[in-house]
Amino acid sequence: MRDSEEVQGKRVVGRLAPVHQGAAMVTRLHNFMQHFRDSESVHSWWCVWWVFLVAAVASRLHYITMPYKVVWDEAHFGKMVGWYINRTFFTDVHPPGGKILLALFGYFGGYNGSHSFISPNTPYDGFHGIMPMRVGCALLGAGLVPLAFHIVWTLTRSLPASAFASALITFEVGTITLSKFILLDPLLFFFILASFHGLCLMHSVAHRSFSREWWGSLLYTGVMLGFVMSIKFVGLFVVLVVGLYTALDLWNKLGDLHCPLVNVLKHLVAYILCLIILPATIYITVFFIHDQLLVRAKSIHAAEEGIFSPGFQMKLKDNALNNITQPKDVAYGSIVTLKNNNLAGVYLHSHNLTYPERIPGKNMQQVTGFSAKDVNNYFKILFPEEDPDLANGFYNGLPELVSHGDWVRLYHPTTSAILACSKNKSLVTRKHRLIYAKPYNLTDVVEVVYSNNMFDSNSNSGVSSSLMSPWQLWKVHIEGGQPGDVVKTLDSRVKFLCVPYNCALTWSKAKLPLMWGGGQAEVTCSNNLQDPYTMWMVEQHYNPYLKNYTYNHLKSGFLSRFVETHRIMTWINSRLKPEGPDRFNSHRPWMWPICFKSQVWYDVNFRIVLLGNPLIFWINLVFLLITPVFLLYHYYRYKRGYDDTPQIEEKKERVLFACKWLLLAYLMHYIPFYTMDRILYYHHYFPALQFSSLLTGVVLGHLLEALDSWLPSSKANTAFYWVSGIFFVMLIYSFHLFCYVGYGHPTISGFNPDNSTFKNIRVFDEWEI
Hints:
By secondary structure, this protein is α+β, with helices and mostly antiparallel strands. Among the domains are: 2-38; 325-550, Trefoil (Acidic Fibroblast Growth Factor, subunit A), CATH 2.80.10.50. It contains 22 helices and 17 strands. The chain has helices at 2-38, 42-61, 74-86, 97-108, 131-142, 144-156, 159-170, 173-179, 185-204, 212-229, 236-255, 261-293, 303-306, 310-313, 445-459, 514-517, 558-574, 582-585, 614-640, 646-668, 686-705, 713-743; strands spanning 325-327, 335-340, 347-354, 365-370, 378-382, 407-412, 417-425, 433-439, 474-478, 494-498, 504-511, 521-526, 536-542, 548-550, 599-603, 606-610, 745-746. The strands form three sheets. Strands 2, 3, 4, 5, 6, 7, 8, 9, 10, 11, 12 and 13 form a twelve-stranded antiparallel beta sheet that branches. Strand 15 (599-603) and strand 16 (606-610) form a beta hairpin. The chain is elongated and about 110 Å long. Mean pLDDT is 88; it is low at 454-467.
């Protein structure tokens, strides 16, 4: 009987054990949530930290090799990595810091820079060390989450707010997509948030001036600012945010009558050293590394080197100007290249193509501006009416030098044509005259007369031809020159004035139509003789009857190259206008906060679309609208003299500071794009998106923690748990719905909106998913 009771008792205990275990789990969960809300448990803090860190890394590394081919702008930046590894010169619109970091990822991953990255869809098979570059970008993209967590924690000391902000960044699909490929964006996002993180650390130790922690926060912020400016010029926006914070801090100290003026000056010096000189030093150092690494020209014909000054080009091995020897004084019969003396100046160029028949100047040979060194850039300087005496095309007797005030003709040897000015208007810049090249035979005088007459009669130019046609004559005007001054190679700045029309050969800065002009620069004759674009210089000079000289003394130093590189980068940036197919892909800033339009990145048997998590965009938009109301409400309470307990007042001050500066950072990274007329893409919004996610986390966390002010404690706890749970579930579910839009998914044929896997979650027709 006793044995039977014992057995029955064990069965009862066995049945009750799961109940007790379930009750224990509920108790532990309840305690965790209580600690989570109160933000007092170190254990809960680290648990949340590690959960989001693991989620961030896993979400960024998932599908990291898919597709195992070049995707979107990997074709752009992958080439640059190879050029760095092979030390080949190139120029780009962005500073070199991010590209050097990508090259380091590739170098330490074993990449030898041999992949062509020629275009999207080029396979990576057979090339080692490319995936480490994607992994490096993904890990920096994952670093946004711990940075976001600690930014919000530093500002608010609220674990829920930190978790909400971290979740918004962790599950944001567009940010993940931008973090998984060989791009500058994950690097830029990381250092932007790191710079703002430094601002938060500075604020948190502001009351401990000149302590070790205070100096550490300043130095950390300065280093991050230097890095972010070295990646993209968009980093200037966060520099302005930090600069405004320090300026206001100094202003407040200056207005504090209890703060000695000497102390204010000490802070000013510290800020200048750490937040101006240190970032500037890092920025210049990055350019110095870039300058020392890239020492080889791509080829003798590369356009990227051609837009730089001769002194810059002389630094590059394999460039035509590197260690060049050529005559110093220009003579009649010399073969020269003429380069426009302005920033990114083009070479005078002609080729065996004519202007279209449907316009004035039909069938005339084109004269254009070309950026690259090319055989068609060479022109021979002829006397006004004499022909060469020697079989090799040069003049007999002692060389006669070209001087200020001389009349010359410019002969194009490759096409046997001579430069001339037409009475017709130029084709793009209508206020200028048309420049063309006229067939001319140097060896047969009779044929010259005949071909000139035939050409003029067919071209309807109305110009009677002779051996010395005035429309072929150009007066040499050396800038600052006097009669008798000789044109010097690489030294003189020369204008060529058409004798009958008194107009100057100029680069109009316009482009010829792509259809018949190949998009090359337009060269015209301008009546504005003071136009700086009428200035030319002789860059390369060949004449076997003149003594050669070296020009190494003209080679640019680092500071000159540093300044010129920035001028070229600014020039390239100014030319990034929406045109051609790009005008259809260009986004406008109003589209971004509402997630109105997607951007297709890859669609060859595997489709990737940059869209983002629309739920996160829309939640952030709601809180962007709530935040100004929230700030105005508390400003009203402050003006009306409402008092709170010291504990609530301290927490409120933290939240208000966070809201003001996060909102300012968002606006600083968003509003400037409305002023830009350059081509814009969807990814330009994502730095601002990170700040809006942080702002949402701060405001949502504060509202939920403030429920105790409106509801009884038990109901406030219940509401907090439910709202928090629903928030996280919604984010995870929306991530589940949209993640493979950004990760990519295999496809069988081209995109069909009516038969798409994701057609049921398409809100706007502009979502190509």
